[in-house]
Amino acid sequence: MPALLDDVRFAFQPLFNLNTGGVVAVEALARPHDGSVQDLLRMAFRAGYLANTDVALACRAIRSAADHDFTLPLHVNLLAMTIADKSEHMAPLYAALRDAGRPTANLVIEVGTPYSRAPRHRLVKGLDRLRQDGFKIGLDGVGEGDAPLSLLAEVQPEVVKLDREVVQELVDDPARFALVQGLQHLCEATGSLIVAEGVETEPQLAALRRLGVRLAQGNLLAAAQRRPKINATISTVLSEVNDPEAATKTTTKPLRRKPGPKVTDFLHPATTLPESATSEDVRDVLATQPTVTGVVLVDDDGRPTWTVDRNRFLLAVTGPFGHALHAKREAARLADPPRVIGAGSTAMEMLDVVAHTNRERTNDDLVVVDDDDRCVGVVRVADVVRGIAEMKVEQAAALSPLTRLPGSDSIAREVDRRILSGEIFAVGWLDVDAFKRVNDSVGFAAGDDLIRALGRKLTEGATAFPGIQVGHVGGDDFLVVAGLNEVVPYAAGVLDTPFDAEGHAVTLSLATLVCAAGSVGSYREVSRLLAPLKEHAKSLRGNSWVLGRPGSDHVDVLRGGAHLAVS
Questions:
Q1: Which residue windows are coiled coil (predicted)?
Q2: Digit-coded pLDDT (tens) for 113-126
Q3: Which CATH superfamily is domain 267-385 in?
């Protein structure tokens, strides 16, 4: 087997942050001279040397990466069976890291299929041991392989690799889209990040962004090659995907993101050096990595103690006598105290930190730290400002110009989120009775005033109920999503309010569908079930309100007079 390993070379494929367009990590991929790496591992399995061969490949990946001298996190692959095997098999991995000068915290171990052949308790124990030693964990092949979802919940890996087969079917298969929605929801609960593998087309990339997946790799972005493209960007691809028309290429609705972006959505890997590093050490890093905007000096526990801004540092060391004065002395002399922010903070909170800093440091990177104050990366102010601006533009484009309420996409995301969360909730569909007659009798301007007044009432009423979301989906149609204990007092407040158009009284019809956990599967199904309820409500006199439930033909009439006579 050692002779066969001599013929193995490695290609490196970057992982991109879809929000910043930059490379955040690099995966090492084994490329045997003959056949595939799977063929090589099968031969090793038959010979009884699977674990040794698997670890040897990972060690070679680490040493091969060291030849290219990059500090980005490195992803290497190990089988689940190897990790569940004897712990002493992993010893060469530690030696390879020491030889390469790469800390364990800078290595992501991607656990590969099959999982079913690795005893669960031994696999979890092996992963716990690696994590205690500082390694980060990724689970590979999720979505098409045999990775159990319960393992994701138990291990809570830093990274979940979405299988390329799922990505390829994402655009045309609503079921695959829903699968990723559910996986994204699980990962939000565990703190894991999804990496989409095998991104080949722009529609796939657009679908991933709509789902909130922010890390991806694939030939569309950058192919695997012998020399890692650590300075690559995907700004051109992203600018095309951000075209509003791109969203129309898929017919499914995205999972709602949490309010506002988080700082980790814009995370770059930190370029770190020990706090005792000299100015010469910093200069060497900046000279070999032209895209690095600064260096974070950290203590032995990985906590930031100083930050070195690229521009101010180079200005000092390249001036007259700068090199002679500073080269052999501690870089901390030319550094600043770090501006830190917690990994759970929002982008708006970050901008608040920036607003209260000294003007000369406004554009400095902020260091993102975990709960133990260890550095997990940096964020750049320009990325966050651009991201928030894009978000605000998208939000404004989605609002009704008449009522300034969000449209059906926003309500769809909220309904899908509650379905995935297993909540009990209600969806109400409200409109004005005979609205066309209002426009025909008093004019469309008066009709617009009526819609604005109704929109204001719906919005004002919602302020007392934080769980309610209101949308204006066109014309005189409004949708309301509410918790079960909120819908009755909220709806009563709206229906008790008299409305008129130029003095002509109007009435409202409200149809409400109460959805228990598991009773509906999608926003589209909710819409279909509301249609007959709405027809029932419109058949009643005065302000009307009817209530139904999925799977039941029974309709509760909460308001409204007897049925109108049919001529």
A1: none
A2: 999 999 999 999 99
A3: CBS-domain (3.10.580.10)
